[in-house]
Amino acid sequence: MESLTLFRNNKERSYFLFIVLIIFSFNLNLQYNNYTNFKNEEVFQTDATIINIYQKQKYQVLKLQTNEFVCFTSTTEQITYKKMQDISLYLLTNNIDFIDYLKGFYTKNFNLQIQNKTMLSTKEKIMTYIDLQHKNTQISSLYKALFLAIPVESSLRDIFASYGISHLIAISGFHLGVISFILYFLFHMIYKPIHQRYLPFRNKRFDLMIFISIILLIYLIFVNLAPSLLRSFTMFIFGLFLLRNNIKIFSFETLLIIILIIIALFPKLIFSLSLWFSIAGVFYIYLFIQYFKKMNKYIAFLLFNFWIYFSLNPITHYFFETTALEQLYSPIITIGFTIFYPFSAFLHIINLGEILDSGLNSILNYDIITYKKLTPLWFFILYLMFSFLSIFSKKSFIVLNILFLLFNFWLFLI
Known about the structure:
Blueprint: H1 10-39, E1 43-55, E2 60-65, E3 70-75, E4 86-92, H2 98-103, E5 105-106, E6 109-114, H3 122-131, H4 137-148, H5 154-163, H6 166-169, H7 173-198, H8 204-222, H9 227-244, H10 252-265, H11 273-292, H12 297-319, E7 322-323, H13 330-349, H14 357-365, E8 371-372, H15 377-389, H16 394-413
Parallel strand pairs: 3-5
Antiparallel strand pairs: 1-2, 1-4, 2-3, 4-6, 7-8
Helix pairs in contact: 1-10, 3-4, 7-8, 8-9, 9-10, 9-11, 11-12, 12-13, 12-16, 15-16
């Protein structure tokens, strides 16, 4: 049966855009009301959770998450703060406009107090459980990022940027795909005999995907709606809806619909770079599927990670200048990560997380020679233009491939 399209005509598309605009306006208005409440006080008292710490020479910068916003503040106090620690403080609200409020602003504070808790949260218990399995704090920080979406410190972030594998550290669609596959395998073993005996009239695959969706939703909430994972989960749920109704999934219109839905529901994510990188990754995956779908599946599997990596380089290097020859290993490491990620999770569950530490130590301590290169603005614009034109034109796709090959040659060899 041939797949259907989500919208039959432009009239239905117009209705959808109108509904999305209403939802976006409503949520943006909620954010603005929160902002006005914040600005009504010259000094705003709030409770917050420390989600990251940036150690400077004479002070610390704290990234804070409150119920309404994310902000940054600094402290010179000689106190050892920890990630996921709850605090109370007063924030100065002057010179903060609405855009800054949405993006995440920096402001001064006073009377910062650590809140004493009688019980640890579930996330803190898991963090402690991971810490106890490792002597190296960088390695435990890595695993907390992989499993709990806890941001890593800047030194560790720089190491992974040097290897070109920052995308593996931020939980995203790649991780969601691995998690979904494992959950499907486990649930299938449990549900198959139940289905055969009691529920043979049910669609077994659809039931399993519903179970998986519930688990993934709980996980998404648990990691505080990490933007890249939120995008992936939204696509996952939307994909189930499309499959159930025999509607074409792998289309650029579908991707655009997902983007509009996410922005309408969460206006702040317009300013989330991780979300846009995640969307860019999906965009080039769709391009790959569009033009290489008839290729031998084994050759396509080997080519896939390399093509996606090289095609994204002109975009990532517009924002991040760190470059190293070791980044050429990124596609291979990405393939290996498919095995490492679930295996390391299993080792931590059975309290044997330290088994892989010696290998990780070698990777983290390897001396990488880095240099700085940024994508020129003119090339960035040209590349984006041919990327979008490639949706409709094979000639533009050929030009796109030439552009990113030339760019990567300049990036690594010149």
